[in-house]
Amino acid sequence: MPTPDQPITPDYQRLALAGYSVRAHTSIPQTWLLEVLNQTPTTADRHYQQAPLPNTTGAAFVKTYNRRPRHTLRRRLKSGRSIHEARGYIAFANKGIPTPTLLFWGERRVMGGLLWESGVIGTGLIDAPTVADRYANTPSLELLERTAHALAHIHSVGLAHGDPRTRNFLAPETPAQAPAPEIIPFDLCSWGALTPRRRQDDLVKLLGSAVALTNGDSEIVTPMIDAYQSACRLDERLDIGTLRDSAVTYAQREGAP
């Protein structure tokens, strides 16, 4: 499994700030990062916030994971989701998959660093709606096909997204008379190496979220699968009928794209 010690990481330094052990890009001022970490809440299970980046018009998207009552001691001895998600951004970047820029990540542990208490990860904020939001405003089959093609690209390099619903892809604006920009995956807390089961799960989640987004239109499955297969061959054990049925069941169960 890819780890933070792969070639992309020399630009990240180890720091101890606000009770967190973090790795941060060398371009990130420690005073800014300390302020961000001091503002992370400790009550909500998961929290999202934006933080303006210093000396630029950009911003960071900061996600905080906090310990839940159901977390066992055995679970807290392991690395948290922020570490796993950071490894995902590193793995995707190393394979040439466009994602938001990874700025920093880390954990806060107690009992002498033994037990996980909370985790944090910060990425560059991309000014673009999600595929789900863009489709809701301007329905487009082409947009869904491009999203399926983006998932196929991820699979073609041996990775799985883990939660590739349409709300977990960004769809940047397309300038007039310019090629359509790439669909950008994010929220990689469930990523992993590609296996036949993970391929199927990824496809069902994407197709199911698309069916939910289109108010139950299962006919969009076929063109999306065609777009997927233009970049990545479908497992012979999967057929469009089975995927359509699974996508409809997923959409009915989850109800949200």
Entry keywords:
257 residues, 21% strand, disordered N terminus, 2 domains, Transferase(Phosphotransferase), domain 1, globular, alpha+beta, 6-stranded antiparallel beta sheet, two-stranded antiparallel sheet
How many domain regions? 2
- For the record, the CATH class of the largest domain is Mainly Alpha
In the CATH scheme, what's the topology name of the largest domain? Transferase(Phosphotransferase), domain 1
Report the order of strands and helices. EEHEEHHEEHHEEEEHHH
What would you call the structural class? alpha+beta
User: In angstroms, what separates the terminal alpha carbons?
Assistant: 29 Å
Beta strands, count: 10
Helicity, as a percent range: 25-40%
Radius of gyration: 19 Å
Q: What does the average pLDDT come to?
A: 90
Which blocks of ≥5 consecutive residues have pLDDT under 50? 1-8
Any guess at the CATH architecture of the largest domain? Orthogonal Bundle
Count of individual helical segments: 8
Strand order of the largest sheet: 1-2-5-6-4-3
Largest sheet, described in full?
6 strands, antiparallel
Principal-axis shape equals globular
- In CATH, what is the homologous superfamily of the largest domain? Transferase(Phosphotransferase) domain 1
Strand content: 15-25%
